[in-house]
Amino acid sequence: MEKELSIIYSCQKEVELLGQALSLLNWDQQTYMPKGGVSSRAEQCALLEVTSHQKFTDKKFFSAVKVLKKKKLPYDKKRMIEILYKDINKARKLPPSFVEELSRTTALAHNAWEEAREKSNFVIFKPHLEKVVHLKQKQTKYIKMPGHPYNSLLDDYEEGMTVEKMKPAFEKLKKGIINILHRIESSSAYQQQKPLVLATKIPKEAQLAMCRDVVQRIGLQENDSRMDLAVHPFTTHIGNDDVRITTNIRDNPFFAFESTIHEAGHALYELQMPKKYAHTVLKESPSHGLHESQSRFWENMISKSRPFWTFYFPRIKQAWNIQAIEDQWYRELNRINPGMIRIESDEIHYGLHIILRFELELGLIDGSIKVKELPQLWNEKMKELFGVTPKNDKEGVLQDVHWSGGSFGYFPTYAIGTIYAAQLYAAMKKKMPNIEQDIAQGKYMLIREWLQKNVHCHGSLYQAEEIIKKACGEGLNTSIYIKYLTDKYTDLYNC
Amino acid sequence: MEKELSIIYSCQKEVELLGQALSLLNWDQQTYMPKGGVSSRAEQCALLEVTSHQKFTDKKFFSAVKVLKKKKLPYDKKRMIEILYKDINKARKLPPSFVEELSRTTALAHNAWEEAREKSNFVIFKPHLEKVVHLKQKQTKYIKMPGHPYNSLLDDYEEGMTVEKMKPAFEKLKKGIINILHRIESSSAYQQQKPLVLATKIPKEAQLAMCRDVVQRIGLQENDSRMDLAVHPFTTHIGNDDVRITTNIRDNPFFAFESTIHEAGHALYELQMPKKYAHTVLKESPSHGLHESQSRFWENMISKSRPFWTFYFPRIKQAWNIQAIEDQWYRELNRINPGMIRIESDEIHYGLHIILRFELELGLIDGSIKVKELPQLWNEKMKELFGVTPKNDKEGVLQDVHWSGGSFGYFPTYAIGTIYAAQLYAAMKKKMPNIEQDIAQGKYMLIREWLQKNVHCHGSLYQAEEIIKKACGEGLNTSIYIKYLTDKYTDLYNC
Question: What interface predicted TM-score (ipTM) does this complex get?
Fold first, then answer.
């Protein structure tokens, strides 16, 4: 048994190290790489993906896992073997040539997406996306999970989740959101609401300084993290004590600040994972939804709350020279507005953004929607759900990075994460009823510790929903999220 | 034969791509990586080094090379096979465990060196350097080239070069330099020379702006290159059309400007290599000496010349607010001064810096010098050759990055490169007698083209000295370099 364990630890570690090298290649491509480097980068990534896939699906590794699967083991090792068995089994269904093609295709697609987005021209991206979609359809045929073909992709991000479970949950979410939205829209506060006015044209450096300040308070240090600029903000884990976030400066200065807080939530999770499981699958999040719960928690529950601004408003007022009082600022920040861009969305419309993408993804993967139809369908759905139409592809179908990378099945995890985040905050407040006083003083240590003790410390020892059950006493519960939204926006819009 | 060629092309490409990924890991470590990332980085690099070594020494690859070695092939393919045969044969002598250990050891040593250098404390670096030296001694035993054990290391940088050839060449160089130096030192111009005064405390951004300006004129574009800050300036080739240089801001503002020009010379060479040999060993420089000739050419022959400053002095005068006339500036820039730091050295003392390192390296590798003796020996040799003693380890034994990376055998190539650079400039001026007029107008296109046609276009189709023969009509000729120095400094010091 010792022999098998040693094989398993060393193979996991090699796969992890290759993954980290790949993360750096991706980080660099999105931050500093000269444009000329793109074709080489695609080939470098493809080679590392294939090498990693080969190592992960190696016979010797899988055999060792299969031997240990039959043995009596302590819980943590048993769970590790369980995850490895499932993942290797899935990975072995994908031929190396497919993995290489997918990697090369998505690297080029990413670049095409950047150009297309910059020029607001879907045509540049279209042939690349067609290739990506074709490959992802092929992937569903290799993986062949029961039910909708999309399930085979979704499982990569949210273990155990299916279209069949998702659809009713999203129906409930949609109804809940539309219900609140109607109440808000019919309020006089909403009807008299003015356009965004308080913070405009804040210099880039002043925005970045605030971002750095909040990131540090959340708990990232210069020694273990860094922040750079990228077209689309993201977090990546390059090594132990090396986590990187990116941000992007846009017209609305809330954007950089809040997206930075969002990414810092992801990064904190990575940094607080159990070190004793280093170089194993146990030192990973069990699902994207749970990872997203960490970013959404900081972004929504913390940084869009009144107590947060008790501390931060005087600082930002001075640093950015804001002419307003705190209450105006808080309202403007949480202003409901059917905007085009998901990551600039208010909390209410956010769920609708996800539902729109989920519906399109289902069609793309089952073949009922063609890539060429996307821009029009996108705009139609925006009209239907939001009552507005994007004026171009940049603020429509080209806004998100995910499809260029082949990440179909990723979007739903944002909604799951947001629901989990609301549940975690409710549980945290039950345990620490005075936590808002800390937040009002810019002190996040107790929050950091609570998250560490209730979520981060588990790594992937349990499935995401089990961790939520341990922390909150129950699994996914959309009602708590709907209640959070209702309470907050009833107060804000007096409706 | 088609089968073998196909194996050879795909294996070379994989090794190249892994090398590029490694270059990025190294670049990142020296530019942006948070300190906490160092131990993971060491393991990532070790894994990629081993993977690359495995691929390079793979039986299938070597067999294909051996088959083609016996066939009649066109010149370029024949040369490619010849290089591969030699290099694989050498690499196969190193066990993978050794390669891994060396990679991990040097990654940690690099970090220790940075800390030691910052704190000017050799003790921090000592145990790491001892491990590195031990491994390099071991390497010489695996490789076992004839003659001095150092030959087995030197050959990695300068094919065909040996200690036995090097020693008399360096004797000649030493004599030549000391001869000029004595003449300079006894000149009244030297004796009345004032300390550096013209450019002091130039703001970092103003320095970097000038660096960017000159880099662009030399021929690097935003699309295919970038410049960042690092402790020790270097150039690295991350992919086709992705070459990166770094610089470092020091008290003397000539430093950043000239070291940037030096690195730009390396980068231009990389960018102008023959694209038709992409992903093969033919699209590489045949030796470090030849690579160095490209950087030293731009740094010494161009940027320390009078015509260069005819164009640049008015610009720098304005940008940096310099109170001087061009002639003063030119003299100050070329001022002879027995300084401690190699990469801040004047042209005359530079060769002595190399000779000092070469002599210490020989002793370290043959065991006659112990690592613990290094600081003292360094200082004694400085006293002997320069007449001055470093006041601490930072300006003594800790100044260079090379040993932390295990690059023993690298330093001599700087001297070889400098000699080649003088030969190339002499040949270029013979062909284009009016080239100084272009330089005086900040126009480097003809120079770029000449270098491309006479050096860069060859890749490694020929050995370094053959390329020099083609370009200059003869191989390595120390006398031309000595003559260059004599002419220049006779004029400068009127001696």
Answer: 0.90
pLDDT on residue B22: 97
Which helix or strand (DSSP H or E) is residue B225 part of? strand B225-229
Give the number of other CB atoms < 10 A from CB of residue B381.
17
Of the listed ranges A192-196, B461-465, B491-495, the least confidently predicted one is A192-196
Mean pLDDT of chain B: 95
8 Å CB contact between A370 and A378: no
The backbone torsions φ and ψ at residue A71, rounded to the nearest 5 degrees and listed phi first, read -95, 160
- Cβ distance of B25 and A24 shorter than 8 Å: yes
- B100-126 pLDDT, tens per residue? 899 889 989 988 999 999 999 999 999
Instruction: Express each pLDDT in A91-144 by its tens digit.
Output: 999 998 998 899 889 989 988 999 999 999 999 999 999 999 999 999 999 999
B-chain residues within 8 Å CB-CB of A21? 21, 25, 44, 47-48
Q: Tokens 């590029």: give the residue.
A: B20
A263 is catalytic: yes
User: Which residues of chain A are within 8 Å of residue B13 when distances are taken between CB atoms?
Assistant: 43
**pTM for the model:** 0.91
Task: Determine which of A26, A40, A111 to mutate to test the interface with B (most B C-beta atoms within 10 Å).
Answer: A40
Q: What is the pLDDT of residues A369-413, one digit of tens each?
A: 999 999 999 999 999 999 999 999 999 999 999 999 999 999 999
* Average pLDDT over every residue of B220-240: 95
Q: Do A40 and B223 touch (CB under 8 A)?
A: no
Contact of A184 with A336, CB cutoff 8 Å: yes
Distance from CA of B34 to the nearest CA of A (A): 5
Interface probe, candidates A30, A51, A272, chain B, greatest B C-beta count within 10 A:
A51
Residue of A nearest to B237 (CA): A37
Query: B100, B263, B270, B292: which is the annotated catalytic residue?
Result: B263
